[in-house]
Amino acid sequence: xxxxxxxxxxxxxxxxxxxxxxxxxxxxxxxxxxxxxxxxxxxxxxxxxxxxxxxxxxxxxxxxxxxxxxxxxxxxxxxxxxxxxxxxxxxxxxxxxxxxxxxxxxxxxxxxxxxxxxxxxxxxxxxxxxxxxxx
Length: 135
Hints:
Layout: H1 11-26, H2 33-51, E1 62-63, E2 74-77, E3 80-84, E4 95-96, H3 98-108, H4 120-131
Antiparallel strand pairs: 1-4, 2-3
Helix pairs in contact: 1-2
């Protein structure tokens, strides 16, 4: 099932999911720290998603992607990625490979003190390793 070219980044589904969760939080009488953080950050993300120009991304190659590259699914030997496991969530449609990279960075490159913040050093190391040729 391929998405229409007008929704290459699956923006509609993402915005709908964000909005549903925002509504669920807003119905509560008390909001915890993570929910409050989600409300603040999702407001920023929503503005970014609505203003994002898909033009440059339309030229990206589309691939069947893993969609679940998290630490538990990565096997390392001597500080090098040696295997990827758990192909249960492989996409049924083609997506830009950058989506797999984004999911990996989101789950694997978090600050140790605050899981809500991205560790830019870890993210940079991952992206540098990702583009290195396999020897």
